[in-house]
Design brief:
Homodimers and heterodimers. The longest helix has 12 residues, at 22-33. The strands form two sheets. Strands 2-1-5-3-4 form a five-stranded mixed β-sheet. The chain has 126 residues and is of the alpha+beta class. β3 (46-52) and β4 (57-59) form a beta hairpin. Residues 89-103 and 107-123 have low confidence and may be disordered. It contains four helices and eight strands. 24% of the residues lie in helices and 30% in strands.
Length: 126
């Protein structure tokens, strides 16, 4: 499993089968990126998102651990500011459905292959 941190050129690999919970995951990510105490505390300004098997961007921790492990394809560490930039405003018109009112996160996924990045926008409602 690849993990990419905003501002880092190189991703890191993590083996989810060695972990048993989100707490274990956050501890391992903090260790891998030298961010001890920064990822577990939301007030520190970092957010953990992931790309699932359908290429949607989701928030880490929203699903039961075993379900997360089944669908995660890549993990992303972003600053809160970057997540806010990716979020397109909420629709407040009461005539729209609940799904339409949810914020949308757009991500330009970058291929790790040699050459130019492959930018393909992906939208997800969170």
């Amino acid at each position: 499993m690849k993990v990419h941190k905003q501002g880092s050129l190189v991703g890191r690999a993590i083996d989810l089968s060695r972990l048993s919970s989100y707490n274990d995951l956050l501890s391992e990510l903090e260790r891998l990126f030298g961010m001890e105490g920064l990822l577990k505390d939301p007030d520190k300004g970092w957010r953990i998102l992931y790309t699932d098997s359908e290429n949607d961007i989701m928030v880490v921790g929203d699903d039961p651990w075993h379900e997360f492990c089944d669908v995660v394809s890549k993990i992303h560490i972003y600053t809160q500011e970057e997540v806010e930039k990716m979020t397109i405003g909420m629709i407040s018109d009461d005539t729209h459905s609940c799904l339409e009112e949810a914020p949308i996160i757009m991500e330009a996924s970058k291929s790790s292959s040699v050459g130019q990045p492959d930018y393909s926008p992906t939208a997800v409602r969170v």
